[in-house]
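#struct-queue
[09:14] JT: dropping the first one here, sequence first, then the structure tokens:
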Amino acid sequence: MKGILLPKLPTELEVVDFKDLEDNEAYQVHLKNQEIDIADRQLFSSCHLQNVSFKLSVEADLEFTDCVFEKCDFSNLKFSKFGFYRCVFKDCKLLGTEFAQSFLKDVQFQNSLLNYANFSSACLKNVRFSGNTLKESLFIASQFKHVRFEDNDLEKANFWETSLAGIDFSTNQFERLDVSPELAKNIKVNLSQVPFFAALHGIDIV
């Protein structure tokens, strides 16, 4: 599988207050312990966002390139139709966060809380979910290309109308997923997961 590109960050980033940035241009800075209000178009590039939260107006339009999010709380925010390129979410709280119709390329989610997060109709290319809790998360009608799920809790995650060809579920935990049976083919599972996927295709194991 193709490797995921890491964010390109300078060795040292200046810790700044977002309100002090000229024209709110967030380039090559460290934003720490802040609540940031965004009302319109905003590009974040080569930024480290640590313990940051957002207040977004309905007109907010965000794009993130080469960003690291660490211990940020973005719960219940609408990141719909936003772009994420070469980004890492580490130890973040993303309960119910909306990524619907967003574009994510070379993005990693690590050890984060993503219960009820919504990636429906999003395009995910070279994206890795590792060590997260994704209970009842939504990936309905999503487009997957080189997507990895490693050591996550996927209980009741919904992949309806999403092709799962090539997906490796073997290291993840779940008793139930919502999937389209005709699209749940050519996947990799462990022995304890075999009965669930067999039942989808009308196979009885005796």
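[09:21] JT: and here's the second one, same format:
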Amino acid sequence: MKKTVIWLDNYLEEFFMVISLILMTVIMGIQVFSRYVLGSAPSWSEEITRYLFVWSGFLSVSYCTKKCISIKIEQFVSIFPRRGKALFKLVNHTFELMVFLYLIPFALKYMMSAVESGQVSPACHIPMYYVQAAPLVSFILVAIRIIQRWFAELKVVREKDEKGEKACRQQ
């Protein structure tokens, strides 16, 4: 059980994004082959590829948050010492968390509107709430990843404080 949780923590987004990329490649390959060799492309291929793309796009937000790869002003942050960087990142993560916690209820509302409408996709007749659940799942995962990053930065801030306290006690 513990190994599964650790694996999910480390590779959840990557796993689903790789599977999505493989499926999109195979499906689009089938579509191209069908269109140019057989003269007729399956109607479902473009739709499924679009939905996989939507899901992988939203999952990539969580992946980028986990890996700390986002648009940021690195030159500004780099002028601070290690503890200052960690404090700056704590503040930044706090604001990010507030934004995503604010967005979660809207994503839930968006998905629930699709559930209530009973809308299905035109070609595959997939319930649209499967697709519209992507923002909700993504925002929840991002909030979890931000909390993880927040605690990692807090640990860096506390390390410095603990080292300083030990040095003060020794004098």
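[09:30] RK: nice, looked through the second one.
[09:31] RK: The radius of gyration is 22 Å.
[09:31] JT: good to know. The chain has one domain: 2-170.
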